């Protein structure tokens, strides 16, 4: 039987990933002491894996596919296929950014001022390539967390660190002088798995449902009754996401109009719909939008 | 750009109000130390304000509109526009009532027996007017909470106090002899804002969505298939809230019938629908019902 | 006025039963000190009752109907009507089983080896009958919980005990050699209530809604747009649970197709629907499916 | 090696018993699935056992000693040795009582009125003996909990039930007409264990430390300096629990006086001590008082 | 029988006050719906009362004594006896302060700049008197909480508000230009109660024990053995709080030295004691230090 | 002013370290976003640092002293001074061990069988040296957590991993074939700080108090009265930790005997003391034992 080997990211992405799979139709059951969670699909075998190592494992075909951050795939320079970007909108509104920061009172103002300086970071490879391309000589050392402290202690002149809200950076009195990369979660696959028809179809189907479930977080169903005389008018103000479903009502000059729209548009749209003759408007939640 | 200044009530109504706005389409983000919460609508600016002071602020146009209790608007005798009553059904089944209570063993039986007596209350103005209209002379003093204790301690002969379940009143051995007012939450606006076309439309649109979200708490969607022969029969037993949506099915003598009804009617209606020929009945939840 | 006396099971089934009734349309309000909870239906009167005693109370007509486990009805040999099996799928995936277990190092391998041995169990009657039918002489004693400990202490040679996951049995080093019965929750009624037309109709209506709510846990609504050219193809791959609702769209060669299907089929069905020409697929949750 | 087999009560006494042993010097470690907890004393082997069955197990020498309620020892008429009464003062101020209760509107006023009536109880044996001694004929049936409900449903005329605060009894509208027994926790031993010198000494040592730890909950240490001139005066007002420890101070006419007293006496004693010349009074907590 | 009527402050001081009384020897049992808590002393009767109203009630002899903030006693200009200052050190390290604050960008720099300006505060009386004494004319209005918002909204030019950490003040961008008062918790009594010998003694005894319990939070017991040759040396470096208790040891040239000292001195003192010849040093906690 | 730079370990040791310092007399206040916590001693400056990096920082004199695990000091081969072993007895009874484990069904039985095999570990340096000394050639790769999974996936033949209870190792079906090291928490200092008289004294004083607080976890105070006739007898059975404090009592032939002993000896000692004539025995807790 065909099996797809799938990597689930350990750490900050873990809970959101399990919940997304649940909403998409797969139940993944973690055990606190085992890195191979159960999943209710005989064609899948799951492994828990650190995001930092995921793309290497996929590249070496230890895993066929996995969920990880774009940053670590770039750091590892892994030769893999990016199947889909997964924007976990509920976790945070701001993207994950890797920035270069210096002490607030440092004389360093621009990247060029870093010539000959020491930089501490967990993202050694990417940072090295970044400065090499700019022709700036820097000494880069690996830091295993608590990176902000290193620049405060004087062990480094600058750091390259990940941040969403900049609060840790500001709490240490650091100043950001450059953004090296923004990152987001991705669904990736190995080239071999992508070339295998059965695996590719399985991967594409999973991607389809993951994206359908993510989309449903921000979209709602809307249904209303509209008289024939106002039908064109109402349809013309509906956002054009998918064309609306319009059904004639029985023994009547009225039509049922149903559509899906972004949740944040509803508050502006409903007053307009009423003005244009719609009645009996209801809104309902969705699980998936394909 | 036009801005509507909106007051959010502090205290017992605060959480329910924030949740209602969320369901209606606006996210209001409180900060524990700031009275000016963020809202995701550039046309709105929010302030946290005590319900007791809300109507005065609206009257003086410090705020254009606000959410508060009817009781405090009456207490302040504020000259404002009541845009909508908002019945927060989930918080409590019983209305908020202001009652006059005396010690269980007091000789006071009727309002007239209060002639010359001392009354403690937080609702000084309304109570004073109430007794003045009845021509009964009473001495009214302001009480800052723990009002029940004052009549037990002998500092007052009676109190006028707010209650939902009467449990605090009974726990102090008091007896209610009159109900002065029932209150509920209201959406209010200043006369000036109501006269300004842009502000009035903004206020009306907010009211429309707040009421649509409140209504959806108690209403569900119901959908079923009905053969043509039983269509009139089924339609006749559906509650007439909005007329049902009836759509002919493809290549068939059957129709799809869809309607919205009060959740508490469903358990009685479903057996009747089955008896009258409906099939494939499903019920689903709603977010808004306009 | 007619009243149906309904028994609610105390203990492990209590919470799930109350929630199921809530979803079905009845609010049952427990009080921590009273065995007669309130219910928002004047035709019902509820009592809390141990599952072990439920069927006897129904048989003696102290109650008209009740929720209990099949195991205790069989233990009591109660002469009642089984109205419906209620499979509470969310509580546990595995059925409740009564098994015969012996110490891991016991010489007992088969039921026959129990001849003349001592068995401890809470299910005395059923176990006695079971062995009598097989012609095996055993000495059965009643055990009030902590039954596993009795065989470990040497007070019994074997136990008959209830289990879902076998974890307690394994933790005491016991070995299962026979399964006597599997059980599940049932809705039962007395023969007299079933013979009374009003009570029977009330019981059937409750059963209808309880089953409708249980079914909705595992079923979702699915809606899509399909061009006329692919309509037969799409319909042919839809699971045949209820025939789909097909409505022609206005001024168009497209149709709206709507159906309900098992949640676990969705992940396989959606890719097929897309391949066969369906578009704009949405999935939504259901409260009841009749 | 000698081993003492000790029974720990399951249920409401379990947590308080484990904590008391901890304070006395033994750590008992429960496992959620095993009835034989570990203890850090090679001379002890612990078993978890229901209080209802404890005295029978001790009588039959399955256990050498155990902690249980006096009520169940009397119910079982077990022939055992009561080593010590353990009054767990922190759990509840009121003793556990077994009472006879009837519906509030019952005509039964005295025990004699129960002649020929039905009584439901979990304490069948004790209740039977109680009425036999009084020469009153009653029909006693075993009830497995929810006993209050039985008299409300009319299945029994009276109940014999355990209570501390009477709140469940009052919540069902019952009236207490007699108290059959008050109970408390006891440390019991088998006659054989008591006759064995090693076991008896082990049992007595455990009892000594359990009682020392219980006593320390209500007693504190008090220390003060007193001039020789006031020494007799101060000593005369100290409660006489144990004589105080009086030590002369170095190069001085002062003495250090140290004693242990009931915590609730401290607030009245300290002002008196000051008046009588004591100085530098300190109070500290105790773990054990033997 | 003599009874002392004691006021317990509602709100932020409530929990700390109940705990202090518990540690001092009185158990006060609050009921969520009753303002008259139970206390285990027949000579006391407790009432819950807002700190703002406490001193007025004591002055009018509705209460004999009470716990409240010094600020509200000054605000009310109540003619009462301050029995003791109670510094609740564990709640917060910083004292409660009433400060005058203005918007960060206000032109107001000194008190004199407030001439003719509007000030919002809950502390109307004290503030009025303060400015009258300085001969500065200001318009003072009562504010019922959310006072910071008023100056931001432009309803006032400055506020007088209570603060410990200044965090709310800073979160609204305000600037402090003057401190009007620092406050702390006090135990107060009415003049009449103070003149009544029985009441005065009861009040003094309570004050004695409250202060003894507060002191014990910051003080520990220290005990050591010292050879005669080093005794004077060791005693000379002990802090002189109370003279140490020195007892000669039996058949030996050594002495036991025992004292109480501030907890924060211990870490510096112990190394010195060892150097000066002390041995076997132990530290223990105290409940009360009189 | 002299300052000692002290490293506090991040992660699993963090909480226990902060609590130990609190008990020893220093309050360290963590901020969630800053690696430089505040401490109430002007002579100390604290930094949060990963245990893996602590000894390197101390060796390079970025820090003067720190708390870390012995394992990481050995891994880093840091040239530092071990001031004290700190056995945090309450956290876990078992020592931290680094073990070599292989799959349960592996043919590897002894260290020699690893010749030419792949080992994954976080402890690369120590492991490399270990095998080099034994003359066994192995390929060692760094693993960043989830090490057990690597041997299960076939990426390594064996792992060297840290464990206390072996539960994770067993949950992956691994078998331990060798223990490379046991570790515990240590207080370490740099050679330079140790050579500086002021810093050395500060470090020794901190070590003294940390050890005094750790010791007090397992030791209690015991005090009793003994008649002169039994004094030698009682003293002879007291454990000889520190000689007991013996004080003659006033006007009496009795003596007060006070000592400190291991908590786990108390339960055996008290019965013996009573038999030998001691009376009025009390036990109390200690904060520090030097």
UniProtKB/TrEMBL annotation, chains A, B, C, D, E, F:
Its EC number is 2.4.2.17. Pathway: Amino-acid biosynthesis; L-histidine biosynthesis; L-histidine from 5-phospho-alpha-D-ribose 1-diphosphate: step 1/9. It comes from the Bacteria. The gene is hisG. It catalyses: 1-(5-phospho-beta-D-ribosyl)-ATP + diphosphate = 5-phospho-alpha-D-ribose 1-diphosphate + ATP. Residues 216-288 form the Histidine biosynthesis HisG C-terminal domain. InterPro entries: ATP-PRT_HisG_long, ATP_PRibTrfase_cat, ATP_PRibTrfase_HisG, HisG_C, N-reg_PII-like_a/b, N-reg_PII/ATP_PRibTrfase_C. GO terms for molecular function: ATP binding; ATP phosphoribosyltransferase activity; magnesium ion binding. This is ATP phosphoribosyltransferase. Catalyzes the condensation of ATP and 5-phosphoribose 1-diphosphate to form N'-(5'-phosphoribosyl)-ATP (PR-ATP). Has a crucial role in the pathway because the rate of histidine biosynthesis seems to be controlled primarily by regulation of HisG enzymatic activity. It is found in: Cytoplasm. Pfam families: HisG (PF01634), HisG_C (PF08029). Its main location: cytoplasm. Feedback inhibited by histidine. Residues 50-211 form the ATP phosphoribosyltransferase catalytic domain. Gene3D superfamilies: 3.30.70.120, Periplasmic binding protein-like II (3.40.190.10). It is an enzyme of class 2 (transferase). It comes from Thiovibrio frasassiensis. Belongs to the ATP phosphoribosyltransferase family. Long subfamily. GO terms for biological process: L-histidine biosynthetic process.
């Amino acid at each position: 039987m065909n099996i797809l080997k799938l990597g689930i990211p350990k750490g900050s992405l873990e809970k959101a990933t399990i919940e997304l799979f649940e909403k998409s139709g797969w139940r993944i059951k973690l055990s606190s002491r085992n890195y191979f969670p159960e999943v209710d699909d005989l064609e899948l075998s799951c492994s828990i894996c650190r995001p930092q190592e995921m793309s290497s494992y996929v590249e070496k075909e230890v895993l066929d596919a996995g969920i990880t951050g774009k940053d670590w795939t770039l750091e590892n320079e892994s030769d893999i296929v990016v199947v889909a970007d997964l924007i976990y909108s509920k976790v945070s509104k701001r993207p994950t950014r890797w920035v270069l920061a210096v002490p607030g009172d440092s004389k360093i103002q621009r990247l060029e001022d870093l010539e000959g300086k020491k930089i501490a970071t967990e993202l050694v490879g990417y940072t090295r390539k970044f400065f090499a391309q700019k022709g700036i000589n820097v000494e880069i050392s690996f830091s295993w967390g608590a990176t902000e402290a290193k620049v405060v202690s004087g062990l480094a002149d600058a750091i390259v660190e990940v941040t969403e809200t900049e609060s840790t950076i500001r709490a240490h009195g650091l100043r950001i002088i450059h953004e090296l990369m923004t990152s987001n979660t991705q669904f990736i696959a190995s080239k071999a798995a992508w070339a295998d028809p059965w695996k590719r179809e399985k991967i594409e189907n999973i991607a389809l449902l993951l994206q359908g479930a993510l989309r449903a977080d921000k979209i709602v169903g809307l249904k209303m009754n509209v008289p024939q005389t106002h039908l064109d008018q109402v349809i013309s103000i509906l956002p054009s996401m998918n064309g609306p479903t319009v059904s004639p009502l029985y023994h009547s000059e009225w039509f049922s109009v149903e559509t899906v729209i972004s949740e944040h548009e509803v508050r502006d749209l409903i007053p307009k719909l009423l003005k244009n003759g719609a009645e009996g408007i209801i809104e309902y939640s969705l699980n998936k939008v394909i």
